[in-house]
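So, who can interpret the following?
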Amino acid sequence: MKIGDGGTRPALNVQFASDCDARIIVGVEVSSEGTNGGRLPPMLDQFEQRYGRRPGTAIVDPAFATKAVDKETKQLRTEVISSIPRSKQLIPHGIDPHERQKGDSDEYKSFR
């Protein structure tokens, strides 16, 4: 896996989902992918298999809040709450991360 220092070494990426009210882990996934993008829908699938329904809300790290994931989760009726991805890179260039950006779908615009 590519590591933050630019090198490549054996590594694993572990994601877990928890129920904030019950304070329990409700899903776990281990992969060798170096990105979290695209990993939220499979976690929601795990939740649905275990509990027979999808969660109404998912509070996630911005790495999970990709444009494709936001569109897919809206269709599955799960609201994604996250800070805006790449906001730290946009602000120094005078770009408001909450305003619609080129390539944003209507769903992603509402997320912003």
Q: What stands out?
A: The chain has a mean pLDDT of 84. The radius of gyration is 15 Å. The first strand starts at residue 13 and ends at 19.
